[in-house]
């Protein structure tokens, strides 16, 4: 019999202890398969052998009905008794050679890989696929190996791609699935960020336990996973086009986001600089979100559990705070919450360069927002010597600016916002130019930093397309700035600040606002740049 074909796109690993009350594993797995699961692993760590085999047989009847392979975790004896399609083994289980001898060549054998040493050993076996992780810390597997994070996963995959294995190019070809803490909020970045730059090796899919097993609606959750994974497959058909196609226009979409922020009132945890704390809190409140400032390590997990967003602003941070900034980003990452990183003055001092590298290299920042010098510094341009926090702009060429944001977004697999007279935004595929602010913004401290607050609020409630949320946030911010400046009785920056907050406040009940405020169609105030 030939080996069953292997599709690791959405790999369900079970744990019946996590099932919601009243649900059976077999019913749950069947619904998950209907939602798009492509392979199932029965992983029951505490079940007695007889019950394990009986459950395996029952489950196999279902998986066979849908033509989906069933593997057994750790137990070759159970796999043989069930007669299913294979096993998944780790480094405390049977040796690969024994498993292969007992199961024969027509069964699938997957092996866990958590580090380079295990990768070399797995390569020597020539196993059928590898499960790489944990990507994030997870309570589903107690005492797991250290979480790799997406940069660690990318490095490990790059290393694996160089391993010749039995076929000479085994490492490049072996299908790889990521596991550990993967959910709907982070699945896309796991896929995007794990890919090495020249696409030397990319993941074949993701393996998920709790996000599917603990859900009350496994079919819907799996359908959402499949959709998100499809976006990763085909980045040209980026979600923002889909979003616009489903709304009547930008105007309609942006208004909906502004209203949703005010209804849902997301928490925006600010770790920001002393100069702008008050203004940022007021901006956050004005758009209807809920600001909180905290710089204590012990509060991070509880604040992340609110499922809002984080603004991480390096404006007045000290050497002693470096570790906290990273911990804050990681706490948000672990909870799947968006992080807006503002590397204020990144190119001004060596401390700031160091903090920037630490955060960007060890955590995921969904959005990085900065002026041209800051963005260039994040890109690794060490020729930039910023004077203070101001941008020492090095180009007047709009296309070069657009290229810079696109290049960084591609590298980081995130969204880059470069602020200036004209703002540039890119997700690495599509790049936009927004030129609708007002010059008075440059004369009021905190206006750049608190743009991060509105971006965080919008992205936290519109995670299905962060790019659209960012475009909406900048458009709302600039519209409020422009209209406040053009309003009557504005004498200067002091009165403008008040009028600006009032306009932002009005925007959240969008029907009060004239249609002209918002961008109706692409090209009006939001332009797609061809780079
Ligand atoms: C797809 C996949 N990848 C990795 C693992 C982890 O397996 P292992 O290292 O054997 O740990 P336990 O699952 O036995 O706790 C997996 N199960 N599946
Ligand atoms: C089995 C296993 N191996 C590494 S992490 C993990 C558990 C993943 O579970 P979850 O998807 O709930 O984080």
From TrEMBL:
The keyword Nucleotide-binding applies. It catalyses: 5-(2-hydroxyethyl)-4-methylthiazole + ATP = 4-methyl-5-(2-phosphooxyethyl)-thiazole + ADP + H(+); 2-[(2R,5Z)-2-carboxy-4-methylthiazol-5(2H)-ylidene]ethyl phosphate + 4-amino-2-methyl-5-(diphosphooxymethyl)pyrimidine + 2 H(+) = thiamine phosphate + CO2 + diphosphate; 4-methyl-5-(2-phosphooxyethyl)-thiazole + 4-amino-2-methyl-5-(diphosphooxymethyl)pyrimidine + H(+) = thiamine phosphate + diphosphate; 2-(2-carboxy-4-methylthiazol-5-yl)ethyl phosphate + 4-amino-2-methyl-5-(diphosphooxymethyl)pyrimidine + 2 H(+) = thiamine phosphate + CO2 + diphosphate. SUPFAM superfamilies: Ribokinase-like, Thiamin phosphate synthase. Residues 10-212 form the Thiamine phosphate synthase/TenI domain. Pathway: Cofactor biosynthesis; thiamine diphosphate biosynthesis; thiamine phosphate from 4-amino-2-methyl-5-diphosphomethylpyrimidine and 4-methyl-5-(2-phosphoethyl)-thiazole: step 1/1; Cofactor biosynthesis; thiamine diphosphate biosynthesis; 4-methyl-5-(2-phosphoethyl)-thiazole from 5-(2-hydroxyethyl)-4-methylthiazole: step 1/1. One of its GO terms (cellular component) is cytoplasm. CDD domains: THZ_kinase (cd01170), TMP_TenI (cd00564). Keywords: ATP-binding, Kinase, Magnesium, Metal-binding, Nucleotide-binding, Thiamine biosynthesis, Transferase. One of its GO terms (biological process) is thiamine biosynthetic process. Its cofactor is Mg(2+). One of its GO terms (molecular function) is thiamine-phosphate diphosphorylase activity. The keyword Transmembrane does not apply. Condenses 4-methyl-5-(beta-hydroxyethyl)thiazole monophosphate (THZ-P) and 2-methyl-4-amino-5-hydroxymethyl pyrimidine pyrophosphate (HMP-PP) to form thiamine monophosphate (TMP). PANTHER family: THIAMINE BIOSYNTHETIC BIFUNCTIONAL ENZYME, THIAMINE-PHOSPHATE PYROPHOSPHORYLASE. In the C-terminal section; belongs to the Thz kinase family. This is Similar to Probable thiamine biosynthetic bifunctional enzyme acc. no. P40386.
């Amino acid at each position: 019999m030939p080996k069953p074909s292997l599709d690791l796109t959405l790999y369900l690993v079970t744990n019946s202890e996590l099932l919601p009350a009243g649900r059976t594993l077999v019913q749950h797995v069947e619904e998950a398969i209907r939602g798009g699961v492509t392979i199932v692993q029965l992983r029951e760590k505490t079940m007695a052998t007889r019950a394990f085999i009986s459950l395996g047989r029952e489950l196999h009847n279902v998986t066979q009905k849908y033509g989906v392979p069933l593997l057994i975790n750790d137990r070759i004896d159970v796999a043989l008794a069930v007669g299913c399609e294979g096993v998944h083994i780790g480094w405390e289980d049977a040796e690969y050679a024994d498993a292969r001898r007992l199961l024969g060549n027509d069964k699938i054998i997957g092996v866990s890989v958590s580090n380079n040493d295990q990768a070399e050993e797995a390569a020597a076996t020539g196993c059928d696929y590898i499960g790489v992780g944990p990507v994030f810390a997870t309570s589903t597997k107690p005492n797991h190996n250290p979480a790799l994070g997406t940069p660690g996963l990318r490095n490990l995959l790059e290393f694996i791609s160089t391993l010749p294995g039995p076929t000479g190019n085994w490492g490049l070809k072996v299908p790889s699935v990521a596991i550990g803490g993967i959910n709907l909020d982070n699945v896309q970045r796991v896929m995007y960020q794990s890919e090495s730059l020249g696409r030397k090796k990319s993941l074949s899919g993701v393996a998920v336990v709790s996000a599917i097993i603990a859900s009350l609606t496994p079919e819907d959750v799996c359908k959402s996973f499949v959709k998100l994974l499809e976006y990763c497959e085909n980045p040209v058909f980026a979600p923002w086009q889909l979003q616009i196609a489903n709304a009547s226009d930008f105007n309609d979409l942006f208004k909906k986001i502004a209203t949703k922020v005010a209804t849902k009132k997301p928490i925006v945890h600010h770790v920001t600089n002393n100069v702008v704390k008050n203004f940022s809190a007021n901006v956050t409140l004005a758009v209807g979100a809920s600001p909180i400032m905290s710089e204590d390590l012990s509060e991070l997990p509880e604040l992340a559990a609110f499922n809002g967003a984080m603004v991480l602003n390096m404006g007045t941070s000290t050497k002693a705070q470096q570790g906290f900034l990273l911990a804050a980003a990681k706490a948000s990452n672990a909870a799947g919450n968006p992080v807006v990183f503002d590397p204020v003055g990144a190119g001004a001092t060596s401390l700031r360069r160091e903090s920037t590298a630490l955060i960007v290299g060890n955590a995921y920042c969904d959005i990085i927002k900065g002026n041209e010098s800051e963005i260039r510094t994040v890109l690794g341009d060490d020729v930039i010597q910023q004077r203070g926090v101001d941008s020492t702009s090095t180009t007047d060429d709009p296309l070069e600016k657009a290229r810079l944001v696109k290049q960084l977004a591609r590298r980081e697999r995130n969204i880059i916002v470069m602020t200036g007279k004209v703002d540039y935004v890119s997700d690495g595929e599509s790049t936009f130019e927004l030129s609708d602010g007002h010059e008075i913004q440059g004369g009021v401290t905190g206006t750049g930093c608190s743009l991060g607050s509105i971006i965080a609020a919008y992205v936290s409630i519109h995670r299905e397309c962060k790019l659209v949320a960012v475009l909406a946030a900048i458009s709302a911010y600039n519209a409020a700035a422009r209209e406040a400046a053009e309003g009557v009785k504005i004498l200067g920056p002091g009165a403008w600040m008040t009028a600006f907050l009032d306009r932002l406040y009005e925007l959240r009940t969008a029907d009060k606002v004239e249609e002209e405020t918002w961008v109706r169609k692409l090209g009006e105030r939001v332009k797609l740049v061809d780079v």
